Amino acid sequence: MPRAVLDELAAGRGGAAAVALLRSAQRSKTLLLVRALLLLLRDTAHPDRSVVEAAYRVLAEVPPHDRLAALAHPPVAAWAFGTVSLLDAGNAPAAYPGLLAAVAVTAAVRGGTDAELDVPLAPGAAGLLDLPGLGTVTLPVTATRARIRIAGGHARAFAAGEQVDIGDGRSTDRRWQPLSRLDVAHGGLPLSLLLDTRTWRHVPGLGADHRFGDVPIDAWRSRVDGAWRILVDHHRPVAEELSAVLRALVPIPAPRSSTRSGTFHHAFGSVVMSLPPDARSTAAVLAHEIQHAKLAALTDLFAVLEPGSTGLFYAPWRTDRRPLDGLLHGAYAHLGVAGFWRRQARVTGPDAARHHAEVQFARWSRATADTVRVLAEQRRLTPVGRRLVDGMSGVLARWLAEPVTERASVEALRLLAAHRARWDRDRAPTG
Questions:
Q1: What is the pLDDT of residues 399-421, one digit of tens each?
Q2: 390 pLDDT exceeds 90?
Q3: pLDDT tens by residue, 210-236
Q4: Distance CA 278, CA 316 (A)
Q5: Alpha-carbon distance 105 to 79, whole Å?
Q6: How far is the C-alpha of 74 from the C-alpha of 268, rounded, in Å?
Q7: How far apart are CA 110 and CA 66, in angstroms?
Q8: Residues 295, 301: Cα–Cα separation, whole Å
Q9: Closest Cα to residue 335, out of 311, 358, 365?
Q10: What is the dihedral of CA 127, 270, 107, 132, to 10 degrees?
Q11: SS3 for the chain, per residue?
Q12: Could you tell me which residue, 329 or 254, shows the higher pLDDT?
């Protein structure tokens, strides 16, 4: 990675050059994981071994663009990492390597490659066959595998004496449920998202532990369309990164208040969130989560921390204590949050919305600067980690010198003090 690109990332930006490098590296990572999956199964008696080998051959015949698109689908990338980890640890019974056959079906359908594949259903799937990035086939509950025939971009599943047409918009069979898509565009910049809650159930360590929400597609379309207009009009560099990176939106149930959101380290290109209350909140969440995605991909390329102490730290955006890597991730994400509200304050009229934006900018720039000062004192930073912290520090020093109204400054300081007081109180000894 050129130093100039790394410095742009360190400043919380990056742009097209940086995200192109990160995306390319993530695709290479997934290809290596698929190859490792094949090698780890080669000398085993795993029941999915033959279908994985057949899927690998089909993937090799699919046009590269469609092969990469199918493998880069965020939950597929996360599944590949988790499955290889299980197999490498000798825990093959807990793995579902046969999903690669379903991924090969998706790639063949998209690439117009004729093929015929056996696809094993996941243990306990009760007749549900997920084709990542396409949809789900409902088969008889007695089915343990399906035979999929693909010709001319159309596919048909055969299992337990039944057949189901799948894989394109012409199928009217209710047993085929295609994934919902969200496609928005504004100012010549598109954002195309799959609303996928199904493939995640095959990701080791996630499927059983995370609750995914239903998909109120109209509500999500309204939020994302409004957010996209805000981002394109007023935060164009962020929108360009999101357009290049984001491919999957994973709805989750809403908490009692506010919005929950997150990213999974090994699922580059996805964002998990509950339905935000409005378009501006949605835009702020996306500006936050793209930072997590960039840093996760960067730390796959370079170590930013040396192994060492497992100490925990205060973070002004959390109620729990954070390890050093979590503190770094939080600071980088909140650099993006502060930048969002800084720009938002400049384009909002002198009213309550402008005051809110200034308060948020003052709060998160100060909170992030305080945290970056803590990070700068850590001896575990590698040279790349030090460059990252120095880059954030330089940006925040300039932002802290920018004026905000006294009322906004006072309110921001009050919110920061209240958070720290609650945090201290919750950890005070009792009795």
A1: 999 999 999 999 999 999 999 99
A2: yes
A3: 556 666 889 999 999 999 999 999 999
A4: 24
A5: 16
A6: 6
A7: 6
A8: 10
A9: 365
A10: 0
A11: CCHHHHHHHHCCCCHHHHHHHHHHHHHHHHHHHHHHHHHHHHCCCCCCHHHHHHHHHHHHHCCHHHHHHHHHCHHHHHHHHHHHHHHHCCCHHHCCCCHHHHHHHHHHHHHCCCEEEEEECCCCCCCEEEECCCEEEECCCCCCEEEEEEECCEEEEEECCEEEEECCCCCCCCCEEECEEEEEEECCEEEEEEECCCHHHHCCCCCCCCCCCCCCHHHHHHHHHHHHHHHHHHCHHHHHHHHHHCCEEEECCCCCCCCCEECCCCCCCEEEECCCCCHHHHHHHHHHHHHHHHHHHHHHHCCCECCCCCCEECCCCCCCCEEHHHHHHHHHHHHHHHHHHHHHHHHCCCCHHHHHHHHHHHHHHHHHHHHHHHHHCCCCECHHHHHHHHHHHHHHHHHHCCCCCHHHHHHHHHHHHHHHHHHHHHCCCCC
A12: 329
Phi, psi of 36, deg, nearest 5: -65, -40
pLDDT score of 208 more than 60: no
CA angle 91, 96, 101 (to 5 degrees): 145
Tokens of 307: 């192994």
Return d(Cα 384, Cα 287) in angstroms, integer: 23
Query: Tokens 């469609």 identify what position?
Result: 66
CA–CA separation, 259 and 183 (whole Å): 22
Q: Which two tokens stand for residue 258?
A: 């506010």
- Decide: 195 and 214 in contact? Cβ < 8 Å: no
Listed in sequence order, the residues at least 6 apart from 190 whose beta carbon sits closer than 8 Å to its beta carbon are 183, 184, 243
Q: Across-strand partners of 322?
A: 313
Q: Could you tell me which residues are beta bridge partners of residue 287? A: none
Nearest to 331 by CA among 301, 364, 362: 364
For the chain, what are the domain ranges? 31-178, 302-431
The percentage of residues in the chain with a pLDDT greater than 70, rounded to a whole number, is 96
The token pair at 191 is: 């954002």
Is beta strand 180-186 parallel, antiparallel or unpaired with respect to 189-195?
antiparallel
- C-beta of residue 305 within 8 angstroms of C-beta of residue 324: yes
Q: In angstroms, rounded to a whole number, what is the distance separating the alpha carbons of residues 88 and 83?
A: 8
Which residue, 282, 193, 283, is CA-closest to 238? Answer: 283
